[in-house]
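Forum: Protein Structure Q&A
Topic: Joint prediction for protein chains with partners

I've read a bunch of threads here and the consensus seems to be that you should model interacting components together rather than docking separate models afterwards. I'd like to see that in practice. Below is the full input, 498 residues plus whatever partners are listed. Could one of the regulars post the assembled result?
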Amino acid sequence: MENLYYKSTRSEKERILSCQAIVNGIAGDGGLYVPESLPAIDLPFVKLLKMSFNELAYFIIRKFLTDFTEDELSFCIEKAYDEKFDTPEIAPLVKKDDVFFLELYHGATAAFKDMALSILPYLLTAAVKKIGIEKEIVILTATSGDTGKAALESFSNVKGTKIIVFYPNKGVSLIQERQMVTQAGKNTFVVAIEGNFDDAQTGVKNIFNNKAFNKLINKNNYMFSSANSINIGRLIPQIVYYIYSYLRMIEMGEVREEQKINITVPTGNFGNILASYYSRGMGLPVNKFICASNENNVLYDFITTGVYDRMRQLKLTLSPSMDILISSNLERLIYDICDKDSLQLVKFIKNLENTGTFKITEGMRSKLMDFWSDFATDEQTIESIRDVYQNHGYLIDTHTAVAYFVYKKYLVKTQDKTKTILASTASPFKFPHSVMRAIQGEDFKNNLDEFQLLNRLSTLTGLPVPKPLKDIGNKKIIHNRFCKKEEMKDVVAGILKV
Ligand SMILES: *Cc1c(COP(=O)(O)O)cnc(C)c1O
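Posted by a regular:
Agreed with the consensus. Here's the joint model:
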């Protein structure tokens, strides 16, 4: 097989293999790594129907990670998608009327981040070994809730790694905090910081960019790396489940081979929807990508006007994992629609950095025709949960509800009858307060804490509390580190004993 190379979105300088791109995470020029071309699905879909999730994952990912050996990649996949998932299907597809809910929350932390983070530690440690780096990897992560726990769970007890997660004290939900501070694994460290998510994020970036500190830890045989969604090693595994779910639709007799589908995704950092876009680049027949935002609707504005404008106040919504104004992975889409012209891309990025906005050309806008976007308010989110539960007896979380609302709006506006996959990104049990409010309406009395609400929700709906959240209120708290935002580097030094 010929090697596939990766380059930065912002320059033509580097041309590297996947293991180097995964280890680097972000390019030296600040750009994101992209494959030089997208490999094609080079077999008819009917030939793929018999593959298990893991077999398909191997078939797809192998085309991207050409420098991994068969054994290395099989090992990563088998370790990632195993009994941690509560269903052997890994990503089941559930039909309700004309919508196909792609349930991506059956992994270790009950949110879709598990799909990619289950495999990333194995890809990363294999890549480090291939390159011949003998240092221990220290993953630094700032989290607003879901990523932190998924990263902790996936790196827990992985040899040759340590993981340190910073979260804003009082800035995550009670359940999210408890999920993190009860994390087992000798190599895991969790730190609450006095400040908000931006402070945590900035603190982590400052540590990454501190040359003297990096030198010091290198001397002590450590190197820093990151597990956030700009790493190409997190994006590629997300392509798999779109192709997998299309195969399930063929199997169910819902579409003929090559018949087009729509894909609806609740979007924040633009990683999940970009993976669906890449899957079309590989040959999946997609008609429309429906990008659903909450009230932080920068992407809706961008897709409908061609202007990206982050100059606004961040709103805290009921779908917190989408509360984001700088959608990092959008850079990869922009790069694609400006015909891979890095010079032009850098102009947009500079404008964004200097003025908080940029505007794409009409020619580029015409390449966004296959994207459709809208947004949902908190009230519309709650109504959507209620609507789906009352009409279909099916329970969805707040993020999935945002996507459902936007999809319904799309139907009314376009009358498009194309069958649609909707990415269902979290278990409803992760957000029991909002979900209870939705299905109980006026009767809902808020005098129970979130842990009690989990059981109440289970009793009310007859659905079991997912294993990762079961008895979470009674689990032993293991981590109790706390620091000021100025002290983050010292905390890391203390943990690493440097
Ligand atoms: C991260 C997340 C999203 C947003 O996904 P992106 O890839 O950042 O667009 C949506 N829903 C949930 C539950 C998430 O955790």
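The pocket of pyridoxal-5'-phosphate is lined by residues 111-113, 146, 229, 266-272, 321-322, 399, 425-426 (CB under 6 Å).
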